Amino acid sequence: MSDADVRQSRRFLLLYGMAAAGGAVAYVPFLTVLLPVRINELSGSDNIEWLAMVTFGGAIAASLANIGFGWLSDWTRRRRLWIALGLALSCVLLVAVAQATTLWTLIGIVFCWQISLNMMLAPLAAWAGDSVPDNQKGLLGGLLAFAPALGALSGALVTMPGLAAQDFRLVLVAGLALAMVAPVLVFGNPKRMPHLMRSAQTAGQNGREATGSGPTAAWSQTLRQKAGNIVSRMWLARLLVQIAEAALFAYLFFWLRTFIPDFSDSSTARLFGVTLAIAIPFSFLAGWWADRKSRPILPLAISAGLGSVGLGIMALAPNLAAGIVGYVVFSVAASVFLAQHSSQVLQVLPTPERRARDLGIFNLTNTVPSLIMPWIALALVPNFGFSGLFALLAVLAAVASTLLLRANRKT
Distance (Å, rounded) from C-alpha 285 to C-alpha 14? Predict the structure, then answer.
């Protein structure tokens, strides 16, 4: 059996998918609900300014830590060790947030938590690249689609009225993250995939022996020849889609209220959660097709294009019903794009010895949009309304689709 025909065990894939979702559970409820509440308790009327400062500084800390700990896990070749250390420290620091009695103490704990969280997330992402062969990357993307949905669901769970006191909610989040990530560390035991650890240069020297035969091998051979071009296109495309996704995450509630002034926050949360759930089967379908046809780029281009269509519908929507249709189209397409991109990008990174560090650079596409998006919104919404903002975002998503279509034609 050639390297290209080897498949990872289903047990590891399922445990890894649960761990990836656990990573989302570790931060989504805290950053979206529990941290703002804690800042409000300590800051009073200055809560918005303090939250903005914590969010901005935390994004920078997370970006640097992700690259740094990714590089360390590359250098030491001990992915599990760094994941375990990051998991333990992030859980302890999350619980410690309840003990902060001043804003500066809270900020210090949050920054340390961001660093420890990325000590876990960076090697966890790279571990998939070490262990999941290219002919299962689409399936991996389907499993990764559970992460945002379960992250949002965990936020709703821990904040259920009467379930837990404010401080104990932090304990619940830490416990959920631990329960979801730890099993893959203890029971994962993935099959070794030596061919996934060969650099592009080594693989090129070894020729077809490195990748076997068939469509997956042909795709891998093309990657070795055009990796730089494909990597840059995938980085830029994800950045553009993430800018649109970040804008919708931040301003969806306010946009919906332009149609119905009393549209509730709970209804917004339900709409957000439903679209994430709808995206899961579509992500599996896109991944199945990509694995079967050995065409990992095309589903990304199609989903980015559909996201642009959804944003265009939102920009032109005359009423709430049309607007929600547009949002569902965009949100489902963007969720499929992001889940599949997270798995398929593991194919295009040309240097396995620096896989986690390079993923850290790709992770900038997750944090940089939070720094760019507010300025775009401030420039457009006061003068052109949300229609102007969504029109620009539709153009960005269309550019992302075009970049990937061109990359798809080159492979």
Answer: 17
